[in-house]
């Protein structure tokens, strides 16, 4: 790999060291709850960064509201959503593109390419991309190959454009072999676990990161 | 993933009904320093299919609005017939104006035509998509390029080798109580069956095969019940061929490059004992040794000129 032109991605509120540009992370944990919160924290970048989020479960407005509920500002000037949840509505101020169903991987992929290019075109060098969730894509898709091709296409674009990708999956909802194959396409993995006392995160697959479980 | 070797130019098929746009884009792509491309062009889906059937194309770039249908219809034909081909929709139509729902599984790259310096962006995208092989529906070994080069060194179509592989497959089939035993070479886009006892398969698209995954294994790959493995459950051709259980051992060159697999197929779910897997591995070693010896023999024959070739280099 050649030297990165883009700076590493920084996480103000998480027990993580900066992550190099072009990295794709798989975030595993129970759906919703702290896994989803962690996803949003990973996506919250500074003023000069773009953000693009693909949602298959919560509708776009809920995503924007939850994100703001965590104390971040959803800035339509540099953030956009692709809503494939099947129950999304148009919002007045949030830039939300709609795709009819999580099974329409072609439609999601084209909206992704289009939005990614326009964020880059507006001068944003760093772009964080989120997707929630791979488990839902697998439920709706015609077959595993289509989801693999879709993920491969998107993660490759994030890698070459030096973005940051964070994709969530609920390992309990995906068959073991399929999960292992998908996990191998990512550069690193963040596992989330939670109980009555709180939530913890563990990162594996990247150098210079804390080892073992860190409390959130 | 590593880029492809930079020996051959990327062959691009550019489909656009607008004569001027076609000529201009093709010319601009061919002179672009960002990609070493040779570009063929045409205006319709029918013409594109003719070209794809007769010429090796690495990347399709197509308009959305074509005289005989939508660009995604062409991509659908490609996913059915040449599934590994990289496809880019290059159009002024915005994603929300394109009916994608009926083509949800085809997956393409998308680039708007009306952005500043769009041909530069297109050249860069073609280069990235092809070098990263980003539209493959399956994982590939890290040594893919070396692996493909190795396959060319083993002339597995040579008649005597074919007889050996046939004989060995017969032995394997009778040793194990299974419906089918075969040896297959996994090429860039297809698996070719060298010998196949119990069925008459010749080749399958790589994305449809379980051997694609066996290449990634150090030792062996067992799928006791194909139809309950998330990766293969919905692959129609496996069910059509009655592939219900699978056991395979990669065929590796002496330097460890997997070129294919020796496999057992059964028409109902079944398991394999360690000693059965060990036997299958021994058969695979035997087969690979045969192929390797033939390769070395050919190399030696080439190095030592025969008397009637004296003087020739």
From TrEMBL, chain A:
<protein>
    <recommendedName>
        <fullName>Recombinase RecA</fullName>
    </recommendedName>
</protein>
<dbReference type="InterPro" id="IPR055927">
    <property type="entry name" value="DUF7504"/>
</dbReference>
<dbReference type="Pfam" id="PF24336">
    <property type="entry name" value="DUF7504"/>
</dbReference>
UniProtKB/TrEMBL annotation, chain B:
<feature type="domain" description="Response regulatory">
    <location>
        <begin position="11"/>
        <end position="128"/>
    </location>
</feature>
<dbReference type="InterPro" id="IPR029016">
    <property type="entry name" value="GAF-like_dom_sf"/>
</dbReference>
<dbReference type="InterPro" id="IPR011006">
    <property type="entry name" value="CheY-like_superfamily"/>
</dbReference>
<dbReference type="InterPro" id="IPR003018">
    <property type="entry name" value="GAF"/>
</dbReference>
<protein>
    <submittedName>
        <fullName>GAF domain-containing protein</fullName>
    </submittedName>
</protein>
<dbReference type="Pfam" id="PF00072">
    <property type="entry name" value="Response_reg"/>
</dbReference>
<dbReference type="GO" id="GO:0000160">
    <property type="term" value="P:phosphorelay signal transduction system"/>
</dbReference>
<keyword id="KW-0418">Kinase</keyword>
<dbReference type="InterPro" id="IPR001789">
    <property type="entry name" value="Sig_transdc_resp-reg_receiver"/>
</dbReference>
<keyword id="KW-0808">Transferase</keyword>
<dbReference type="GO" id="GO:0016301">
    <property type="term" value="F:kinase activity"/>
</dbReference>
<dbReference type="Pfam" id="PF01590">
    <property type="entry name" value="GAF"/>
</dbReference>
């Amino acid at each position: 790999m050649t030297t990165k032109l883009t700076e590493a991605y920084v996480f103000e509120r998480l027990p993580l060291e900066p992550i190099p540009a072009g990295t794709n992370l798989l975030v595993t944990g129970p759906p919703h709850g702290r896994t989803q919160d962690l996803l949003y924290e990973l996506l919250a970048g500074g003023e000069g960064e773009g953000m693009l989020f693909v949602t298959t479960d919560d509708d776009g407005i809920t995503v924007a509201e939850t994100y703001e509920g965590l104390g971040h500002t959803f800035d339509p000037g540099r953030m956009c959503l692709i809503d494939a949840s099947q129950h999304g509505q148009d919002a007045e101020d949030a830039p939300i593109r709609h795709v009819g169903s999580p099974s329409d991987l072609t439609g999601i992929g084209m909206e992704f390419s289009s939005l990614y290019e326009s964020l880059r075109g507006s001068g944003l060098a760093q772009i964080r991309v989120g997707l929630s969730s791979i488990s839902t894509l697998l439920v709706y898709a015609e077959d595993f190959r289509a989801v693999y091709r879709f993920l491969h296409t998107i993660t490759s674009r994030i890698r070459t454009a030096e973005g940051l990708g964070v994709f969530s999956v609920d390992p309990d909802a995906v068959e073991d072999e399929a999960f292992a194959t998908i996990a191998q396409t990512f550069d690193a993995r963040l596992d989330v676990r939670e109980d009555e006392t709180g939530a913890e995160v563990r990162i594996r697959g990247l150098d210079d990161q804390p080892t073992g479980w860190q409390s959130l | 993933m590593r880029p492809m070797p930079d020996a051959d130019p990327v062959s691009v098929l550019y489909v656009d009904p607008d004569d001027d746009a076609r000529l201009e884009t093709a010319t601009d792509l061919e002179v672009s320093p960002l990609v070493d491309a040779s570009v063929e062009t045409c205006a319709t889906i029918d013409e594109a299919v003719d070209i794809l059937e007769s010429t090796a194309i690495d990347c399709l770039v197509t308009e959305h609005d074509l005289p005989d249908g939508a660009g995604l219809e062409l991509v659908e034909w490609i996913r059915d017939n040449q599934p590994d081909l990289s496809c880019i929709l290059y159009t002024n139509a915005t994603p929300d104006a394109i009916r994608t729902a009926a083509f949800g599984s085809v997956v393409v790259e998308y680039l708007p035509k009306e952005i500043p310096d769009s041909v530069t962006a297109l050249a860069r995208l073609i280069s990235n998509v092809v070098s990263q092989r980003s539209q493959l529906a399956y994982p590939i070994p890290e040594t893919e390029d070396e692996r493909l080069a190795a396959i060319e060194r083993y002339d597995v179509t040579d008649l005597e080798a074919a007889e050996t592989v046939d004989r060995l497959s017969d032995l394997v089939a009778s040793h194990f109580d299974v419906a089918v035993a075969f040896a297959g070479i996994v090429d860039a886009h297809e698996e070719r069956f060298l010998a196949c006892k119990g069925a008459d398969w010749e080749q399958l698209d790589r994305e449809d095969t379980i051997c694609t995954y066996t290449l990634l294994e150090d030792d062996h790959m067992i799928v006791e019940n194909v139809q309950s493995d998330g990766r293969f459950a919905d692959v129609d051709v496996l069910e059509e061929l009655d592939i219900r259980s699978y056991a395979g051992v990669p065929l590796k060159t002496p330097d460890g490059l997997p070129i294919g697999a020796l496999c057992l197929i059964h028409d109902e779910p079944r398991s394999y004992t360690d000693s059965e897997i060990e036997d299958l591995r021994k058969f695979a070693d035997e087969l690979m040794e045969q192929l390797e010896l033939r390769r070395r023999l050919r190399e030696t024959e080439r190095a030592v000129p025969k008397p009637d070739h004296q003087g020739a280099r």
